[in-house]
Write a structure and sequence with these properties.
- There is one protein chain.
- By secondary structure, the chain is α/β, with parallel strands linked by helices.
- It is about 35% helix and about 15% strand.
- α6 packs across α7 and α11 packs across α12.
- The protein starts with 8 loop residues before the first strand and ends in a 7-residue tail after the last strand.
- The relative contact order is 0.09.
Length: about 375
């Protein structure tokens, strides 16, 4: 079991025997502990090298089964960092051109039970932005079916993701092609340079109808929210600080964002960062508490109604394309994605909110998860 991008990790006696049999084994403690960084990377690489295509498909089905048990019916995949095939790879590294093949195979088998939307992540570091340019030339935005569909570029386009000449060039080309772009902000300055770059691109080629997005934004200010809003942009939020965040103001500033009126949606981020479970994120957004019970986001708590809207109807804007008229709410003409929960979301005590699960999940009118609690066959 490994934590985060690069550990630390721990293994059992069977795993310890396997790893120690390798030509270049990781260092493992007597208690099964594996250190953060290269040692964790050696173990992770060895396990990945054991995976067959069918193993990966089984992992897809397992992930979908867990998602439906939590009440998740649609997932936006933000991609991965390019893999090197060495111990330097972490949990967030994958082959960008093959990583979705097991998923697509499950959809081809008609075994998929969750809707998948795919963004394309790139890490170009040269001004020619070769991979971004080839993506724009050879891929289609919003291409696919109601079950699996492409999205935009993100949540990285270049290695200088906070802004710089390569980022600026990629943004220009993405704007010219008329694609969505989503970028990643964690610091107190990166959202500023990103929005400044958006403004510069917009002066040359309007992006106001493209719905460019900044994700995470733990430290964004009302001034920059307003500037992004004027560009037609939005912010993608999660409760990722729940696991590792500390005060005094961990963010994101949910309340300020809601009050700004900027388009805002909510999801889970990568599973090596935060749980897929939406009820954990709802707990964090409404209480401001981390996993230790500490209030780390004071003054920025929002209501359960607001969280529900961010996870459902507000996310229509972020999915875009045909999905905007198909998903996110229960209306005539939309797809029948419905979840019946184990508890009353609006009434359970705060500390019980994290324990909510689905007892019946329906995707496209088909039951894809049934706990049996309803007595439904």
């Amino acid at each position: 079991m490994s934590y985060g991008f690069a550990g630390p990790a721990v293994t059992n006696s069977r795993g310890k025997a396997f790893f120690e049999s390798l030509d270049q084994p990781p260092v493992i403690g007597d208690d099964g502990a594996i250190e953060f960084g290269e040692e964790n990377g050696k173990a992770l690489l060895a396990l990945r090298q054991q995976l067959t295509f069918e193993d990966r498909k089984r992992g897809v089905r397992d992930a979908m089964a867990y998602a439906t048990a939590m009440g998740v019916t649609t997932h936006l995949d933000q991609g991965a960092f390019p893999a090197t095939g060495t111990p330097s790879d972490g949990a967030g590294n994958e082959d960008l051109y093959a990583m979705h093949l097991p998923w697509l195979s499950v959809y081809d088998d008609e075994d998929a039970i969750v809707r998948l939307r795919i963004n394309f992540l790139h890490m170009d570091d040269a001004i020619e932005v070769h991979t971004v340019q080839q993506r724009l030339l050879n891929s289609f935005k919003f291409f696919g079916s109601d079950m699996v569909r492409t999205g935009g570029i993100g949540e990285f386009a270049t290695s200088d993701y906070a802004g710089g000449p390569v980022f600026d060039e990629a943004a220009r080309r993405i704007a010219k092609a008329g694609w969505r772009l989503e970028v990643h902000s964690l610091s107190g300055t990166d959202y500023q340079t990103q929005i400044q770059a958006f403004e510069a691109v917009n002066a040359e080629q309007s992006i106001e109808d493209l719905r460019w997005v900044i994700a995470h934004v733990p430290l964004i200010t009302p001034e920059y929210l307003e500037r992004l809003k004027k560009l037609g942009g939005g912010v993608n939020l999660s409760g990722w600080q729940y696991l590792a965040g500390r005060g005094p103001q961990a963010g994101p500033p949910f309340k300020d964002i809601i009050e700004s009126g900027i388009p805002a949606g909510m999801g889970a981020d990568g599973m090596q960062i935060a749980p897929l479970n939406p009820w954990v994120h709802a707990y964090y957004a409404t209480t401001g508490k981390n996993a230790l019970g500490e209030v780390i986001n004071p003054g920025q708590q929002i209501s359960r109604e607001e969280v529900l809207r961010l996870y459902t109807s507000a996310n229509q804007w972020f999915l875009g394309g045909p999905d905007e008229d198909l998903l996110g709410s229960i209306e005539v003409g939309r797809l029948g994605d419905i979840v019946i929960l184990s508890d009353d979301y609006f009434q359970v005590p705060d500390e019980e909110l994290r324990k909510i699960q689905s007892i019946l999940t329906v995707v496209g009118g088909e039951v894809v998860y049934n706990s049996g609690d309803l007595g439904y066959p």
